[in-house]
From TrEMBL, chain B:
<feature type="transmembrane region" description="Helical">
    <location>
        <begin position="74"/>
        <end position="96"/>
    </location>
</feature>
<protein>
    <recommendedName>
        <fullName>Cation acetate symporter</fullName>
    </recommendedName>
</protein>
<comment type="similarity">
    <text>Belongs to the sodium:solute symporter (SSF) (TC 2.A.21) family.</text>
</comment>
<keyword id="KW-0769">Symport</keyword>
<feature type="transmembrane region" description="Helical">
    <location>
        <begin position="267"/>
        <end position="286"/>
    </location>
</feature>
<feature type="transmembrane region" description="Helical">
    <location>
        <begin position="46"/>
        <end position="68"/>
    </location>
</feature>
<keyword id="KW-0812">Transmembrane</keyword>
<feature type="transmembrane region" description="Helical">
    <location>
        <begin position="153"/>
        <end position="171"/>
    </location>
</feature>
<feature type="transmembrane region" description="Helical">
    <location>
        <begin position="430"/>
        <end position="450"/>
    </location>
</feature>
<dbReference type="Pfam" id="PF00474">
    <property type="entry name" value="SSF"/>
</dbReference>
<feature type="transmembrane region" description="Helical">
    <location>
        <begin position="394"/>
        <end position="418"/>
    </location>
</feature>
<dbReference type="InterPro" id="IPR038377">
    <property type="entry name" value="Na/Glc_symporter_sf"/>
</dbReference>
<dbReference type="InterPro" id="IPR001734">
    <property type="entry name" value="Na/solute_symporter"/>
</dbReference>
<feature type="transmembrane region" description="Helical">
    <location>
        <begin position="6"/>
        <end position="25"/>
    </location>
</feature>
<feature type="transmembrane region" description="Helical">
    <location>
        <begin position="183"/>
        <end position="203"/>
    </location>
</feature>
<keyword id="KW-0406">Ion transport</keyword>
<feature type="transmembrane region" description="Helical">
    <location>
        <begin position="322"/>
        <end position="347"/>
    </location>
</feature>
């Protein structure tokens, strides 16, 4: 788009429309977000954040996968575990019916707290940089 | 059976659902209110809403039915339904919220800047939504028949009418409130009768299940040619990864105020689901004890509704059955409305709004489009459910999970974590996953149950369709670096940057 029309030509109307789709209003850029999104330092920090979060995510997923895929393999490979009893309760029912649920909740809580901590540390570094 | 009382609770559940929706209509003034509940929902209530929406016919009736039928091996279903949220939490909860996407197609477009991928996602989201709606209608049909003797189409029709009215009247805002109430309603309707049945069983020294080793011990109930271990592993993979790609689950994340709240919401959801599923086991096990055999042609899915009459005498059983029937209808209604809202949103944005715009030259209200879309979203699966064969509810919804895991899971996981995902790669992954998953499920239905590897691989395809889809997306992306959206890095930054920085 040109900012100045040639002097001789009659002023033409230029239609100005937004090509934005979606509902969100344009966000005002702030000093911090500019630092984060545009400078090399910011980019470096962000790559660090991304990597830390991914490492955490994969660690949790690894534990979950080992447990959930390991239990069927255990029952299949070691038939004795199928008829194991803990007190009056059969081991497979106890683990699959009850114990796995608090374990999943605990894993979720630990992950959530850890992810928040990583983000807070990152935010502190970025604001100090400013 | 306990006719009049059950009809009373079912009617009450329907009326309360409708009443809350209409009541909330007062606040639903602008189109954005219809969609997003104004984003003022706390994690706790949002978690109850997610739980309320997620616990469907399959959870309320189907899980107990499968445990009744298969014993310990069926316990993997509720575990899979629950662990899906752990995967969702770890991989996409906060980034998905930060993407600002309302539906899965929104996310695809925001991340990849491609209208083509968006349309592909729209088709898949509608397909998965409809696949998930069919068992809800079937559950409603046989529940109403069981408690009143009404013909099969009536129960499903009741759900259809209530859902269309509720969604069209209130949109998302009312639904959030309604869903949160539905969770507690469902939990009470399942847990209180379970407690009473257990107490009666204890006091009267009731029977214990007389079952074989195949029912009590894992992997002993089936012939070796059925490859039971593979089936179980594949089932867990499909359920665990499928939750992330369910259209009605993703929509809920938009109502969290920020990424941190999205994570906290998910932790609450896991607790609420675990609490609920532990009670379903009571029905499965005591069902075996009191109802050693079901008559031919009786669905195992009805065992939850049949148990009170066997255990508690007289009026007590009528009251408990009525509570369970009401809870079951709460399950059908809440899941169906959640799915209907999700499918409606997609249909409205991607089909009806452009279509109406062309027909009326832009001279229509957006709310009209939303309401029209709501009708289409619900009537189609209702019609299909009338002709679909009867499959155990919990097994039926697994189909939707498998398709979601093979299509949207790779898109979301790679989209959130991998900046080199290209438009071509994403599209190739979606198409490959969709074709393989739907193809093998259709083949498995057409060929019927069988033994040997082909039958096992087709009946539980997630273990090979999901890796294939992910691999296709990665390989094609690496081959088409020009297809990486220019803003990929910036988008990824936005998805992972805490709000306290971007909004400072």
């Amino acid at each position: 788009m040109t900012s100045r029309a040639p002097r001789s030509a009659p002023t033409q109307r230029v239609r100005v429309t937004s090509s934005r789709r979606g509902a969100s209003a344009p966000r005002r850029r702030t000093a911090t977000s500019a630092l984060v999104e545009q400078t090399e330092v910011g980019e470096l920090y962000l790559r660090g954040l991304l990597r830390a979060q991914l490492r955490l995510a994969l660690a949790v997923l690894g534990v979950v996968a080992t447990t959930l895929l390991g239990l069927p393999l255990l029952f299949a490979a070691v038939p004795a575990t199928r008829e194991l009893h803990l007190g009056p309760l059969p081991f497979p029912w106890l683990v699959l019916g009850v114990l796995l649920y608090p374990a999943m909740i605990a894993a979720a809580a630990v992950y959530s707290r850890q992810a928040e901590r990583t983000e807070r540390r990152f935010a502190d570094i970025v604001t100090q940089e400013r | 059976m306990a006719g009049p009382l059950s009809v009373g609770t079912i009617a009450a559940v329907c009326l309360v659902t409708l009443g809350l929706s209409v009541f909330a209509l007062r606040w639903a003034r602008r189109t954005s209110d219809f969609y997003v509940a104004g984003r003022v929902v706390s994690p706790r209530r949002n978690a109850a809403a997610i739980g309320g929406e997620y616990l469907s016919a399959a959870s309320f009736l189907g899980v107990a039915g499968l445990i009744y039928d298969q014993g310990v091996d069926a316990l993997w279903y509720p575990i899979g339904y629950t662990v899906g949220y752990l995967v969702l939490l770890v991989l996409v909860a906060a980034p998905l919220r930060r993407s600002g996407a309302y539906t899965l197609p929104d996310f695809a477009e925001a991340r990849l800047e491609s209208r083509a991928v968006r349309h592909l996602c729209s088709v898949l989201a509608v397909l998965i939504g409809w696949l998930y709606l069919i068992p809800q209608f079937q559950g409603a049909a046989f529940t109403l028949r069981l408690v009143t003797g009404a013909p099969l189409w009536v129960g499903a029709f009741v759900v259809l009418v209530v859902v269309v009215l509720a969604v069209a009247a209130g949109g998302m805002r009312s639904i959030t409130l309604v869903q949160a109430v539905q969770y507690w309603l469902k939990l009470s309707a399942l847990a209180i009768p379970a407690g009473m049945i257990l107490a009666v069983w204890w006091v009267t020294q009731g029977p214990t299940p007389e079952v074989g080793v195949g029912w009590t011990q894992p992997f002993t109930g089936r012939a070796p040619e059925e490859h039971h271990l593979y089936r179980t592993l594949s089932l867990v993979v499909g359920l665990a990864l499928g939750t992330t790609g369910l259209p009605h689950v993703v929509v809920r994340y938009y109502t969290n105020p920020d990424g941190t709240a999205a994570r906290r919401t998910t932790v609450h959801v896991l607790a609420l689901l675990g609490l609920f599923y532990v009670f379903t086991i009571v029905y499965g096990v005591l069902g075996r004890a009191y109802l050693p055999v079901l008559d031919a042609g009786v669905r195992a899915d009805t065992v939850v509704l049949r148990l009170p009459a066997e255990v508690v005498p007289g009026l007590g059983s009528d009251v408990l059955t009525a509570a369970l029937a009401g809870g079951a209808f709460a399950a059908f209604l809440s899941t169906s409305s959640g799915l209907a809202v999700a499918v409606t949103g997609v249909l409205n944005q991607d089909v009806l709004r452009p279509l109406l715009g062309r027909v009326t030259a832009g001279d229509h209200s957006e709310v009209t489009g939303f309401r029209l879309a709501a009708v289409v979203a619900v009537v189609v699966p209702y019609a299909v459910s009338r002709f679909f064969p009867e499959v155990p509810l919990a097994a039926f919804v697994t189909l939707a999970f498998v398709v979601a895991a093979s299509t949207f899971f790779p898109l979301l996981a790679l989209g959130v974590w991998w900046s080199r995902l290209s438009v071509h790669g994403a599209a190739a992954g979606l198409v490959t996953g969709a074709v393989l998953a739907t193809g093998s499920l259709v083949a498995s239905v057409v060929l019927g149950p069988g033994s040997g590897w082909p039958a096992a691989l087709l009946a539980h395809p997630a273990a090979w369709t999901v890796p294939t889809a992910v691999l296709t997306a990665v390989v094609v992306s690496l081959a088409t670096p020009h297809g990486i959206p220019r803003t990929a890095t910036r988008t990824l930054v936005r998805l992972h940057t805490p709000e306290e920085i971007t909004s400072r």
